[in-house]
UniProtKB/TrEMBL annotation:
Species this protein is from: Smutsornis africanus (Double-banded courser)
Compartment annotation: Cytoplasm
InterPro entries, per database record: SAM-dependent_MTases_sf, Thiopurine_S-MeTrfase, TPMT
Binding site residues for S-adenosyl-L-methionine: 16-27, 56, 77, 121-122, 139
GO molecular function: thiopurine S-methyltransferase activity
Catalysed reactions, as listed in the record: S-adenosyl-L-methionine + a thiopurine = S-adenosyl-L-homocysteine + a thiopurine S-methylether
Listed name of the protein: thiopurine S-methyltransferase
Superkingdom, natural source: Eukaryota
Record GO cellular component, one term: cytoplasm
Family listed: Belongs to the class I-like SAM-binding methyltransferase superfamily. TPMT family.
Any single biological process term in GO: methylation
Secretion signal span: none
Keywords carried by this UniProt record: Cytoplasm, Methyltransferase, S-adenosyl-L-methionine, Transferase
Length: 196
């Protein structure tokens, strides 16, 4: 598969934090993503009260929307500013607590208890810390992780999924020789080999 010059591209956590600090977050959508609305039935599969995971969640508005209709939402994001912005922009009260298993990590939890957002590297998480999920909404995570980390990312995601969980994945299609990413180009053949 030709992924152009992206194969060796690496973005550091500092670069992501800088994007949030500078407000350079063109990847954030103020409105819910139309593909989530279109494929919501696939994610929910007739079930209610699901645990839904948002990897690299930023301040995704869909987290509040899904929590409001009765689901339990868990997200992870390296930028504490993004998480605090999420709660502020939705006028949601929250409390902060340390995550004993992860040095320096925090969990920001809505006082209603149905939204828990972890501030740490996604690679520090495990099912023993955050449990397993009935659904995953991956709108910008796989395309944001460094190409060299994709296998590690997908392996983690698979360990976080319940047996009957649904995984909604959004990718972008373009010529990887013309754009260095992120978002990174992930060809369908690679998605199939990663997720099996």
């Amino acid at each position: 598969t030709d992924v152009g010059s992206q194969k060796d591209r690496v973005m550091s956590e500092e670069e992501w934090l800088q994007k949030w600090e500078m407000g350079n977050i063109g990847f954030h959508k103020d409105q819910g993503h139309p593909l989530l609305q279109k494929y919501l039935d696939v994610l929910l599969n007739g079930r209610s009260g699901l645990r839904i995971f948002f990897p690299l969640c930023g301040k995704a508005v869909e987290m509040k929307w899904l929590a409001d209709v009765g689901h339990s939402v868990v997200g992870v994001e390296i930028s504490e500013q993004a998480l605090k912005d999420f709660f502020a922009e939705h006028s949601l009260p929250y409390c902060e607590e340390p995550v004993p298993e992860i040095s320096g990590a925090k969990k920001l939890r809505s006082t209603s208890g149905n939204i828990s957002l972890y501030c740490c590297s996604i690679y520090d998480l495990s099912s023993s810390i955050i449990g397993k999920f009935d659904g995953v909404w991956d709108r910008g995570a796989l395309v944001a992780v460094n190409p060299c980390d994709r296998q590690r990312y997908v392996s983690l995601m698979i360990t976080l999924m319940e047996k009957n969980s649904s995984y909604l994945l959004v990718t972008v299609s373009y010529d990887p020789n013309k754009h260095k990413g992120p978002p990174f180009y992930v060809p369908e053949s690679e998605i199939k080999s990663l997720f099996g």
